[in-house]
Amino acid sequence: EDKVVQSPLSLVVHEGDTVTLNCSYEVTNFRSLLWYKQEKKAPTFLFMLTSSGIEKKSGRLSSILDKKELSSILNITATQTGDSAIYLCAVRHTGNQFYFGTGTSLTVIP
Amino acid sequence: ETGVTQTPRHLVMGMTNKKSLKCEQHLGHNAMYWYKQSAKKPLELMFVYNFKEQTENNSVPSRFSPECPNSSHLFLHLHTLQPEDSALYLCASSQVLAGETQYFGPGTRLLVL
User: Fold this and answer.
1) How many CB atoms lie within 10 A of CB B54?
2) What would the pLDDT profile of B43-56 be if each residue is shown by its tens digit?
3) DSSP state at residue A89
4) A71 in B contact zone (CB under 8 Å)
5) Given a cut of 60, is residue B1 above it in pLDDT?
6) How far apart are CA A2 and CA A10, in angstroms?
7) Which of A35, A98, A102 is the mutation pick for testing B, counting most B CBs within 10 A?
């Protein structure tokens, strides 16, 4: 059965800390892995990863995919209170299916 | 972000009511999706439409009935729901075969009494 597992389920850090969020997957016919940030309602897109070992970076956020280990990490450096959200990992199947993890709830304390 | 819109944003209904959720995408995409998001659970894919044709139905109960009249609009018709159907219902769209991600609407928060 295809599945996506995220860890930790929740995380509380202080402003300025660096965090690493994990996503592992068991999905047949893998096409891509995506990270989303969900604050109040709609998830907003962060990164799409298709190739192993190539880091994607956007400001203080970065992500990398390891196809051998069937996993990805999302790093956030110098965290701010505005980073508080649920971070969702999804794996896209070649059949256009998207499988989501339960998410990691990040709380950044001032 | 107005690429994908959903109405209503909040809905309270009784178990005997009939209501519909609406989704519209302004991105020129050709695939649309309905997801259910319940507390502490992964997003659950309910329905997928590619080029207006339903391609996925993940064992969703018949009290949920989707309709996709064209590639820009998607409806979810609700009938005789149960309290456990209370959740956030998210619509998304994407461009099939182009490698793009999904873009989500703001969701409809549904409460079934």
Assistant:
1) 12
2) 888 998 887 777 76
3) E
4) no
5) no
6) 23
7) A98
Contact of A4 with chain B, judged by CB distance below 8 Å, is answered with: yes
Tokens of B32: 């649309």
Q: Which residues of chain A have pLDDT under 50?
A: none
Nearest to B107 among A41, A44, A103 (CB): A41
Mean pLDDT across B99-103: 75
Q: Tell me if A4 and B103 make a contact (CB, 8 A cut-off).
A: no
φ/ψ of residue B85, rounded to 5: -80, -5
Within 8 A of A101 by CB-CB distance, chain B residues are 42
Residue A38: in which H helix or E strand, if any? strand A30-38
A109 Cβ neighbours under 8 A, 6+ residues apart: A12, A13, A14, A15, A81
How does the average pLDDT of chain B come out, rounded? 89
The two structure tokens encoding residue B9: 């944003």
Burial class from Cβ neighbours inside 10 Å (0-12, 13-18, 19+) for residue B79 reads: middle
Q: Which residue of B has its CA nearest to A86?
A: B40
pLDDT of residue A42: 83
**Chain B (62-81) residues lying within 8 Å, Cβ to Cβ, of chain A:** none
- Name which of A67, A75, A81 is nearest A104 in CA terms: A75
Closest CA of chain B from A11, distance in Å: 15
